[in-house]
C-alpha cells in the first residue's frame, strides 16, 4: 500500500482533550484541561450557567457572530517612474489608461482602519508609503477610528470587495523625520535581521522538505474558510474515502501482479544517538538566507543641517546625505511635498533642485531614480518581504530579548548617526488609561475598541518603563534630588521610578534582598488580582519591575497630584504602616461589596490611639483622591494571608499564599458543601429517586431487548443474502425485503425508546441543577482577614471569635496546601505530569497555587526519580545563583561586568573535578569557586529549606546548557551561540558575553471578553462539543488579534487549538493552522523553548497521518534536537520523541532502525524508572511490535507478557491498557499458531519431496 488512507470512521472520533492542551499563554487556558476538571462541578450549578458564568462583557458581545472577513482592495498611487513627463500625446494617453498597483487584504469586521494601515506597512508593494489618507470611491477621507463593517461596500455580503484609495498627503517635520527613519530602519533590518537587538527568528520554514511540495510563497488557509471546509468535507468525505479505498485496492492488485516493490524509506540515521551541538540550534539554511546586498553605502543626516532660517520659512525640514553603491553622493531636501535632490556639494550649499531630477513623495522612489543597484536591492527586499508571512514580520508592542545570538555581529551604521530617535513627549499615562476606561461600552465593538486601546497604552507603558530604567541605571537621568534617600527616586516622562532594594532598608534587616524582592512581586500580583475584579471606582497602580545589570527598578504611573507638594493625601488606610488610620466610608462600601471576589474579610483594627476602624484591605494599604477626583489605591500591603509553614513574623513576613491556591481551595470547599447538601436532599427524596431509577431501568431493558432482536434479524437477513450470493438466484428476495422492513421497524422503536430515555435523564438533570442552583446561593465563599497577626488587630474587643475562625480557616488552607504539594509530587513521580524543565515545572506549581519556596520539599519527595530530583535541584541552584550574580553585578564597574559574568559562569559550569584557586586573582572579581558554591548552598537552605550536597554535583553534569539558559533569562545576560566545552575548567571567555538586557515583570494584561469566551470553550470541551468549541475559538482568535495584535501568545494558542480541533475533519487545513502557531511560538517564546518542541511534534504527527514521512521525520528530528540540547538524554520527553520516531520507522517498514531505538529505550527506561514501571512497559511494547513486524511471534508474545504483567499490577486487570495488552497477546498467539501450521506443512512437503532410502 503506497499511501496510508484515513477513512471517515478513523477521522471523526471523540477527541482526547489532554492532547489539545495548549502550552503557554497569558490567559487562564494555558492549563485548560486541569481547569475544566476543577470547574466540572461549577458547570452544573445552575440551569442558566452558560449565561451566568460568562462576564457581562461576553453578554454584550454575544451578537458578534462571525460572518466572514471583508475583502479590501487598496489602490496605491502611481510611482514616480510612471509619472515621468511624456514626449507626445500618445504616451499621455497610455499614462491615463495605466493601472495603479493594488493590495488585496482580508480584514475582520471589527478591525479598524488604523489596523489596515498597519497591515499595509508590511506589504511588499506599500512598505515605504507612510504618509497618506484612505479615501473611498466618493473621494471622501475615511477616519482611522472607523471599523471595517462600518465602511464596507455591502455589510450583508462580506465577499464583496470594498475599494479604498491611498491618497498621499503633505508632510509635517515630524512625519518627514518618521518617514526617513522608517525607510532607513526597514532597509537595515530586512537586509540583515541580526541588526535587530530583539532578535527572535522563526525557523520552522527551514524544516519543510522538498517532498512536501510546499513553496515558500504558499498561501495559508484563512479563518473564513473554516466553515466552508467543514460543510464541504462532511458532504464529500464518504465519497472521497470510497474512492481512496478503491484506489488502494487497485494499487494492491497491481503490486500483486507486478511483484512486490521495495518501498523507499527515510531515516534520521545516526543523528538519533548523537549529541547535538549548541551551534546546531540555528539551521545553516537560515544563516545563509538572512542577509541581502546592502542597498546603499551611506544614508544619514547631511552636514548642512540645520536648515538656515530663510530656507525654514520656505519649507525645508532637514537635509539627507546619500552615497549609492555606484559611489555617487547626493544631498536630499525634506519638505512638505516630499523629497527632492538639491544641488549642494560637500563644499557648497545650493538649495535649488538638481537639474533633470524631480520631486518624489517618498524616499524609495527618489533613490530608485538615481541608483540601479538600489533599485535591484529593493526589488530583492520586496521579494523577500513577499515570501515572509505576516507572522514572521509582525512585531511586539512590548520588548523581547534573546539570551543568545548566532554571532557577535556589529554592523556599520551607514546613517552615520548615533542615538537617532523621535521626540517622545510627556505622556499623562493615568489620564490616558482613565479616559479609555471611561469610553462608551454599549456594544461589543466598542468594548473591543476600548480594550484594544487599553492594551496598547499598557504595552507602551511597559516599553517606556524599560527604556527609562535602562537610562537610570546608566545614569542618563538625574534623580529628583541629590539627598541620599531622594537620589534613588526619579520622575521621567510621567513615570515614577525608584530603587526599592536600596530604599527599603528595613526589609534588608528582616529578610535581606530576598524579602525586598518578595514585597515587589507581591505588589504586582495584588495589583493584577485587583484588576481582574473590574472595580471601576478604585484605580490600582500599574507597576513594572525591571532587573538590569543587577539593579531592580520599579516604575509606576503617577496619580494626579501625588507628585505635587502638600500635606498627607491619604483618605483611606494608613501612611505609616498602621500606626495612624484614616477611614473613608465610600471606599469602605466599595470594598465591602467586593469581599467575595477579593477573598478578603471585613474586620476591625485599631490605631496607636486605640480608635477602632473597619478594614477590608490590610492596614498597610493606602487610598488617595487625585486632582482629577478619581480614587486611587497606591499601596496594597498583603492581599492574601501568610503561609503558616513559614512562621517567622519578621524574616517570613512576605511569605504569603498565592491567589491561585485560594481560588482552588474555594472550589474545593464549595464542592464539599454542595455534595453534602445534595446527598442530604437525595436522602430526603428517596422515593422520587427510586421512581426515576425504575423508569430508567425499564427503558434500558427495553432498549437492550430491542438491540438483541435487531441483532438476530440482521443475522437472519445476512444469511439469506449469503444464500442468494452463492446461488446467484433471487428465490429469497421477498423474505429479504420483509426482513428489511422488520429491521426498520425495530430500529424505529429503538430510536423512540432511546429518545424517551434521554428525555427522562434530562428531566432528572434539570431537576438536580435547579436544586443545586438553590444551594449555590447558600454557599459562603472563602474570605480571609489578612491582618490577623498584626498588633493593630490582635487586641480589638469583639473580634475574638472572628480571629479564631480566621486562624482555623488559614490552618485548613495550609493543610490543603501541604496536601496539594504531596499530590503534585506524586503526579511528578508517577509521570502523570512530566514538566520538561524547571521553567515549566514552576508554571505547573503556580497553576496549583504552590510557591517556589516549596521546591525544597518537592526535591525531598521526588528522590525516587533521579532525573526529576536533579531538575528541581538545578532550579534551586539557578535561583540562588541569580541573587548572588545580581548582587555582584550591582557592585561591579561597567568595564568589568563581562569579566565578572564569564568568571562566574566558569566557576558554576566549568569542570567541577579540577582544582580551583582559593583566592581570586582576576581584577574586578572578589569571589572564588568555593565561595560561590558555599553561598549557593547557604541560600538554598535558607530559601528552600533543602540541604545541598556539594560533594555530589551529578545534577549538573550534562545539563549545563539548560542551567545556562535559565540563569541568562533570569538575570538578563546574552551570550554567543557557541559550542561551549563544559569539560574545560574555563568554558567561557569574556568576549562571549555579548550583552546585558533588562528582565521585567508586569501584571498580565487580560481581556475580560476573551476570558468570557474561554469559559464557554471550557464548557464545550467538557461536554464533548468540539465543533462548538472550534467556532468559539475562531471568534476568540479574531478578538484576540483585534485587542493584542498578531504578535501575541494568545493568538498562537488559538491557532494551535483550531489546528487540533480541525484535524478531526481535515488534516491539511490543520497543518496550515499549526504552522502559524509554531511560527508565533518560536518568535514569542524563543526557538529553544520546550513548548516550541512540543508543537514541532504536533506538526510532525499531522504530516505523519497524511503520509508525508520525510517531512514528519525532519520535524521530529528538530524536536529531538531541542530536547537533547536543553533537557538531556535521560529526560522522558526526549525518550518519548525517540519512541515516536521508532513507531514511524515500524509503520514505514524500517525495522532495523526501529530495533536500535527500542533497545536504547529499554536500557534507558530500566536505568531511569526501573523494570516494574509503565515507562519500561511502553519500551517493551515497542519491542513486541518490532518482533511482530518481523514475524517473530514467539518473542513478541514473551515481550508482551512482560507488558501485561506490569500494566495489570499498576493499572488493574480491567484497565484499558491491560485489556489491550491481553488482546495483543491473543493476536500474536493466533499468528504464531498459523505460522507453526504453515511451517509444519512446508516441512511435510519438503520431506515428501526427498528420495526415500532403501
Explain how this protein is built:
This protein is α+β, with helices and mostly antiparallel strands and 1254 residues long. It starts with 7 loop residues before the first helix and ends in a 5-residue tail after the last helix. The N terminus is likely disordered. It has 42 helices and 22 strands. It has a 5-stranded antiparallel β-sheet with strand order 10-11-14-13-22, with helices on both faces. A 4-stranded mixed β-sheet has the order 2-1-4-3. Keywords: Coiled coil, Cytoplasm. This is Clustered mitochondria protein. It holds the Pfam family eIF3_p135. It comes from Anaeramoeba flamelloides. InterPro entries: CLU-central, CLU_dom, CLU_prot, GSKIP_dom_sf, TPR-like_helical_dom_sf.
Largest sheet: 5 strands, antiparallel
The SS-based structural class is alpha+beta
Mean pLDDT across residues: 78
Helix content: 40-55%
SSE blueprint:
Layout: H1 8-11, H2 32-43, H3 49-52, H4 56-60, E1 70-75, H5 89-97, E2 102-107, H6 113-121, E3 132-135, H7 148-151, E4 161-168, H8 173-191, H9 225-258, H10 284-289, E5 296-301, H11 309-312, E6 318-324, E7 329-335, E8 338-342, H12 363-368, H13 372-387, H14 390-393, E9 404-405, H15 429-437, H16 444-473, E10 489-492, E11 495-498, H17 500-503, H18 505-532, E12 538-539, E13 543-548, E14 551-557, E15 570-573, H19 585-593, H20 595-598, E16 603-606, E17 612-615, E18 622-625, E19 631-635, H21 659-684, H22 686-727, H23 733-778, H24 791-794, H25 800-830, H26 838-847, H27 855-861, H28 866-891, H29 897-909, H30 929-944, H31 960-971, E20 973-976, E21 993-996, E22 999-1001, H32 1008-1022, H33 1026-1044, H34 1049-1062, H35 1067-1085, H36 1090-1105, H37 1109-1126, H38 1132-1147, H39 1151-1168, H40 1174-1190, H41 1193-1211, H42 1216-1249
Parallel strand pairs: 1-4, 9-20, 12-19
Antiparallel strand pairs: 1-2, 3-4, 5-6, 6-7, 7-8, 10-11, 11-14, 13-14, 13-22, 15-18, 16-17, 18-19, 20-21
Region (Disordered): 81-100, 238-259
Keywords: Coiled coil, Cytoplasm
Protein name: Clustered mitochondria protein
Amino acid at each position: 500500500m503506497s499511501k496510508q488512507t484515513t477513512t471517515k470512521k478513523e477521522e471523526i472520533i471523540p477527541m482526547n482533550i489532554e492532547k489539545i492542551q495548549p502550552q503557554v499563554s497569558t490567559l487562564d487556558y494555558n492549563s485548560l484541561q486541569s481547569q475544566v476538571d476543577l470547574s466540572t462541578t461549577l458547570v452544573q450549578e445552575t440551569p442558566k450557567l452558560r449565561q451566568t458564568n460568562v462576564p457581562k462583557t461576553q453578554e454584550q458581545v454575544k451578537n458578534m457572530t462571525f460572518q466572514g472577513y471583508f475583502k479590501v482592495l487598496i489602490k496605491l498611487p502611481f510611482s514616480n517612474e510612471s509619472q515621468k513627463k511624456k514626449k507626445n500625446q500618445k504616451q499621455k494617453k497610455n499614462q491615463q489608461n495605466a493601472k495603479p498597483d493594488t493590495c488585496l487584504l482580508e480584514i475582520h469586521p471589527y478591525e479598524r482602519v488604523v489596523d489596515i494601515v498597519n497591515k499595509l506597512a508590511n506589504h511588499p508593494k506599500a512598505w515605504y508609503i507612510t504618509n497618506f489618507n484612505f479615501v473611498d470611491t466618493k473621494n471622501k477621507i475615511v477616519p482611522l477610528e472607523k471599523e471595517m463593517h462600518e465602511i464596507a461596500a455591502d455589510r450583508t455580503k462580506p465577499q464583496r470587495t470594498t475599494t479604498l484609495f491611498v491618497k498621499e498627503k503633505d508632510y509635517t517635520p515630524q512625519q518627514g523625520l518618521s518617514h526617513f527613519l522608517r525607510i532607513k530602519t526597514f532597509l537595515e533590518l530586512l537586509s540583515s535581521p541580526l541588526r535587530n537587538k530583539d532578535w527572535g527568528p522563526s525557523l520552522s520554514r527551514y524544516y519543510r522538505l522538498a517532498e512536501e511540495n510546499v513553496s515558500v510563497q504558499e498561501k495559508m488557509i484563512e479563518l473564513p474558510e473554516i466553515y466552508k471546509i467543514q460543510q464541504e468535507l462532511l458532504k464529500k468525505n464518504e465519497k472521497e474515502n470510497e474512492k481512496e479505498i478503491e484506489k488502494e485496492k487497485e494499487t494492491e492488485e497491481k503490486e500483486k501482479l507486478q511483484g512486490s516493490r521495495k518501498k523507499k524509506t527515510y531515516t534520521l540515521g545516526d543523528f538519533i544517538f548523537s549529541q547535538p551541538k549548541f551551534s546546531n540550534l540555528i539551521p545553516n539554511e537560515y544563516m545563509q538566507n538572512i542577509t541581502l546586498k546592502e542597498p546603499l553605502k551611506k544614508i544619514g543626516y547631511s552636514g548642512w543641517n540645520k536648515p538656515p532660517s530663510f530656507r525654514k520659512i520656505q519649507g525645508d525640514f532637514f537635509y539627507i546625505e546619500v552615497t549609492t553603491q555606484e559611489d555617487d553622493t547626493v544631498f536630499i531636501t525634506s519638505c512638505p511635498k516630499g523629497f527632492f535632490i538639491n544641488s549642494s556639494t560637500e563644499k557648497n550649499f545650493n538649495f535649488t533642485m538638481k537639474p533633470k531630477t524631480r520631486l518624489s513623495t517618498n524616499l524609495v522612489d527618489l533613490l530608485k531614480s538615481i541608483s540601479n543597484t538600489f533599485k535591484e536591492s529593493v526589488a530583492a527586499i520586496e521579494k523577500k518581504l513577499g515570501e515572509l508571512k505576516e507572522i514572521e514580520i509582525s512585531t511586539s508592542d512590548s520588548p523581547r530579548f534573546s539570551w543568545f545570538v548566532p554571532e557577535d555581529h556589529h554592523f556599520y551604521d551607514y546613517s552615520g548617526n548615533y542615538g537617532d530617535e523621535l521626540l517622545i513627549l510627556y505622556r499623562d499615562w493615568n489620564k490616558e488609561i482613565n479616559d479609555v476606561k471611561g469610553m462608551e461600552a454599549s456594544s461589543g465593538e466598542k468594548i473591543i475598541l476600548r480594550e484594544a486601546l487599553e492594551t496598547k497604552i499598557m504595552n507602551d507603558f511597559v516599553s517606556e518603563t524599560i527604556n527609562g530604567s535602562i537610562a537610570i541605571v546608566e545614569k542618563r537621568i538625574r534623580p529628583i534630588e541629590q539627598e541620599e534617600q531622594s537620589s534613588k527616586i526619579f520622575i521621567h516622562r510621567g513615570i515614577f521610578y525608584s530603587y526599592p532594594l536600596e530604599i527599603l532598608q528595613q526589609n534588608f534587616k528582616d529578610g535581606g534582598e530576598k524579602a525586598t524582592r518578595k514585597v515587589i512581586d507581591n505588589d504586582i500580583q495584588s495589583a493584577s488580582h485587583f484588576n481582574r475584579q473590574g472595580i471601576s471606582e478604585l484605580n490600582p497602580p500599574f507597576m513594572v519591575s525591571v532587573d538590569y545589570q543587577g539593579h531592580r527598578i520599579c516604575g509606576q504611573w503617577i496619580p494626579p497630584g501625588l507628585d505635587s507638594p502638600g500635606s498627607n493625601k491619604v483618605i483611606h488606610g494608613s501612611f505609616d504602616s498602621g500606626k495612624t488610620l484614616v477611614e473613608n466610608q465610600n471606599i469602605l462600601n466599595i470594598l465591602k461589596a467586593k469581599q467575595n471576589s477579593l477573598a478578603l474579610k471585613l474586620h476591625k483594627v485599631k490605631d496607636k490611639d486605640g480608635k477602632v476602624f473597619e478594614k477590608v484591605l490590610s492596614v498597610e494599604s493606602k487610598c488617595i483622591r487625585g486632582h482629577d477626583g478619581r480614587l486611587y489605591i497606591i499601596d496594597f500591603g498583603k492581599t492574601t494571608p501568610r503561609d503558616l509553614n513559614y512562621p517567622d513574623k519578621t524574616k517570613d513576613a512576605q511569605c504569603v499564599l498565592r491567589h491561585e491556591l485560594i481560588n482552588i481551595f474555594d472550589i474545593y470547599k464549595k464542592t464539599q458543601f454542595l455534595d453534602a447538601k445534595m446527598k442530604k436532599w437525595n436522602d430526603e427524596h428517596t422515593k422520587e429517586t427510586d421512581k426515576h431509577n425504575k423508569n430508567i431501568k425499564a427503558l434500558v431493558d427495553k432498549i437492550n431487548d430491542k438491540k438483541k432482536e435487531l441483532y438476530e434479524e440482521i443475522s437472519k437477513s445476512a444469511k439469506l443474502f449469503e444464500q442468494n450470493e452463492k446461488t446467484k438466484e433471487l428465490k429469497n428476495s421477498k423474505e429479504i425485503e420483509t426482513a428489511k422492513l422488520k429491521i426498520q421497524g425495530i430500529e424505529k422503536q429503538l430510536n423512540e425508546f432511546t429518545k424517551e430515555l434521554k428525555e427522562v435523564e434530562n428531566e432528572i438533570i434539570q431537576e438536580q441543577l435547579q436544586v443545586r442552583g438553590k444551594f449555590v446561593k447558600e454557599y459562603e465563599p472563602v474570605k480571609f482577614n489578612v491582618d490577623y497577626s498584626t498588633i493593630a488587630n490582635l487586641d480589638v474587643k469583639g473580634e475574638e471569635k472572628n480571629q479564631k475562625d480566621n486562624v482555623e480557616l488559614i490552618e485548613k488552607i495550609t493543610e490543603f496546601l501541604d496536601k496539594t504539594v504531596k499530590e503534585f509530587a506524586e503526579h511528578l513521580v508517577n509521570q502523570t505530569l512530566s514538566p520538561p524543565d524547571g521553567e515549566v515545572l514552576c508554571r505547573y506549581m503556580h497553576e496549583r497555587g504552590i510557591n517556589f519556596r516549596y521546591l525544597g520539599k518537592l526535591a525531598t519527595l521526588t528522590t525516587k526519580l533521579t532525573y526529576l530530583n536533579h531538575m528541581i535541584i538545578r532550579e534551586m541552584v539557578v535561583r540562588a545563583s541569580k541573587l548572588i550574580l545580581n548582587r555582584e553585578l550591582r557592585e561591579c564597574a561597567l568595564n568589568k561586568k563581562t569579566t565578572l559574568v564569564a568568571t562566574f559562569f566558569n566557576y558554576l559550569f566549568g569542570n567541577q573535578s579540577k582544582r580551583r584557586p582559593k583566592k581570586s586573582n582576576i581584577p574586578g572579581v572578589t569571589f572564588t569557586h568555593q565561595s560561590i558554591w558555599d553561598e549557593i548552598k547557604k541560600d538554598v537552605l535558607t530559601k528552600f529549606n533543602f540541604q545541598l550536597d556539594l560533594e555530589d554535583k551529578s545534577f549538573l553534569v550534562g545539563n549545563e546548557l539548560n542551567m545556562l539558559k535559565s540563569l541568562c533569562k533570569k538575570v538578563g545576560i546574552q551570550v554567543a551561540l557557541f559550542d561551549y566545552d563544559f569539560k574545560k575548567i574555563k568554558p567561557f571567555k569574556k568576549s562571549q558575553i555579548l550583552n546585558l538586557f533588562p528582565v521585567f515583570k508586569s501584571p498580565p494584561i487580560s481581556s475580560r471578553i476573551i476570558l468570557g469566551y474561554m469559559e464557554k470553550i471550557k464548557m464545550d470541551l467538557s461536554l464533548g462539543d468540539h465543533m462548538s468549541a472550534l467556532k468559539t475559538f475562531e471568534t476568540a482568535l479574531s478578538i484576540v488579534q483585534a485587542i493584542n495584535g498578531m504578535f501575541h501568545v494568545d493568538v498562537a494558542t488559538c491557532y494551535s487549538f483550531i489546528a487540533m480541533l480541525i484535524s478531526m475533519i481535515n488534516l491539511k487545513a490543520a497543518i496550515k493552522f499549526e504552522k502559524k502557531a509554531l511560527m508565533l511560538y518560536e518568535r514569542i517564546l524563543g526557538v529553544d523553548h520546550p513548548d516550541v518542541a512540543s508543537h514541532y511534534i504536533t506538526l510532525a504527527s499531522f504530516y505523519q497521518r497524511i503520509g508525508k514521512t520525510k517531512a514528519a521525520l525532519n520535524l521530529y528530528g528538530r524536536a529531538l534536537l531541542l530536547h537533547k540540547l536543553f533537557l538531556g538524554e535521560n529526560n522522558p520527553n526526549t525518550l518519548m520523541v525517540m519512541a515516536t520516531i521508532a513507531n514511524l520507522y515500524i509503520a514505514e517498514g524500517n525495522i532495523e532502525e526501529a530495533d536500535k531505538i527500542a533497545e536504547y529505550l529499554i536500557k534507558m527506561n530500566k536505568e531511569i524508572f526501573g523494570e516494574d514501571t509503565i515507562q519500561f512497559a511502553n519500551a517493551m511494547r515497542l519491542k513486541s511490535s518490532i518482533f511482530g513486524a518481523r514475524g517473530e511471534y514467539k518473542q513478541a508474545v514473551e515481550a508482551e507478557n512482560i507488558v501485561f504483567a506490569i500494566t495489570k499490577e499498576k493499572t488493574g486487570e480491567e484497565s484499558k491498557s491491560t485489556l489491550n495488552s491481553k488482546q495483543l497477546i491473543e493476536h500474536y498467539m493466533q499468528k504464531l499458531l498459523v505460522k507453526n501450521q504453515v511451517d509444519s506443512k512446508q516441512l511435510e512437503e519438503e520431506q515428501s519431496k526427498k528420495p526415500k532410502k532403501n
